[in-house]
Amino acid sequence: MSLNSSSADAGRFEFSDDNKRYHTYNYYLRHRFGKKVFKVPLNVDLGCPNRDGTKGVGGCAFCSARRSGDFAGDPRDDIRTQFEEMSAVMRTKWADALCIPYFQAGSNTYADTGTLKSMYETALSLENCVGLSIATRADCIDREKARLLGDIAERTYLTVELGLQSVHDETALKMNRCHTYADFLAGYELLREYGVNVCVHIINGLPGESREMMLETAGAIAKLDLHAVKVHLLHILRGTQLGDLYEQGRIEPMTQENYVNIVCDQLERLPARFIIERLTGDGARADLLAPLWSLRKRNVLNSIDKELAKRNTYQGSALDK
């Protein structure tokens, strides 16, 4: 597949019906379900083995006290209440949309299978639910849990999201991730063995990582049998280990120009079939220390579109050569 330089021809990208040169989540969901679908973020407060001493304490250096659930529901409420409250806000914009309950905060396979089955089945019974997304750590997947998830995957559109962030173990050590790339691969392989869709999270801008290292992460995951990818910008948040280092002047955030260029480099190296669920992240405004340009999310996404058009490239174009 090839594209010429006119903006109209960007629509010739295999998985796009607008000007996008990458495989957006919105495109995938609309074509699969025939209408708008949105995620409803939930917080069941299962915790994390990297906070309770099982693997480590304090959590990953970049993770907020809410365990990446800053925009999820209130864990004091039950799943149904959270879902109704969070989806009501979204329905003011998309009244007839379908929903995917999203267990977002913490490690949502970090419990016994009976507890997990109960909460997953509750979510699947919610109104207009057409799937399920579960965020977790790869080291919180064992065969029994993979089998449970495989059973659910046979009945609905299930995606399990694994926080990898980087394939470089030296980075993981600095970030207190408390599991290796080999550990990640073991969890990933179990999920795929049972037919579960996997979405991988990576973070650009982790301290000590060069452009080459970030591209190596993209290159490594490009070789996997993934359903989707989330590309995040490192947000430096108040109250985190990285926040403390930033306030001491010991780390520098990425510039927008650098971030945009690296994201485009990564997209060119990812297979076109991979769904791109995210290309930047949301940091809670009250807690965000840097980079402040990330608050202009639409501007960042538009800049990525413009850079791909300028290069006349698209997702997977480097793999075509």
Number of helices: 10
Which of globular, elongated, flat, extended, rod-shaped describes the shape? globular
- Across the major sheet, the strand order is 1-2-3-4-5-6-8
| Number of distinct beta strands | 9
Strand content: 15-25%
Mean pLDDT: 92
Order of helices and strands: HEHEHEHEHHEHEEHHEEH
| Helix coverage percent | 25-40%
* C-alpha Rg (nearest Å): 19 Å
Name the structural class: alpha/beta
> What can be said about the biggest beta sheet?
7 strands, parallel
Straight-line distance between termini:
11 Å
Uncertain runs with pLDDT below 50, 5 residues or more? 1-11
In short, what is this structure?
The chain has 321 residues and is of the alpha/beta class. It has helices at 25-33, 79-91, 113-124, 143-153, 169-174, 181-193, 211-222, 241-247, 256-269, 297-311, and strands spanning 37-42, 98-103, 131-136, 157-165, 197-204, 228-233, 236-237, 275-278, 288-290.
